[in-house]
Amino acid sequence: ALTIAGGMNSTQQVETLEPLTQLPHLSELRLKAVKLGDDTLRPLARCKALRDLNLPNTFPTEDYAFLRAKRPELRCTTLAAYQKAGYISDGKNIMVTGRRKPFLNATKDAERLAKFQAQFDAMVARFGADARDD
Fold first, then answer.
1. Taking the model in full, what pTM does it have?
2. What is the reported pLDDT for 132?
3. N or C, where is the chain less crowded by C-beta within 10 Å?
């Protein structure tokens, strides 16, 4: 297992996750308060032993969809169109996956959530149909 994390008031700067592909037994990875120079999670798809993944919601939605398509067996709550928020603010209890995506209300914003789900599913299907690994 490996954790790469920044501090409470600082972000850990990492150029790329590419070197993790050289760790053949890496089965659990946690990223917290991390800024990637290449801004991509895609190398994680090539970490074949990886089973458990904990990611912040700060990367492009396409990267979460890419990982879901390429590694559907990964246990990671962020590899979905949205997830329940750990807290409720102004009645918004759903966090849409991806950088700069909104917090929504599960009941009031059901139509918007359905659209985000459809967009995520389409990306997963597109990446799943593509035989390339990255």
1. 0.93
2. 65
3. N
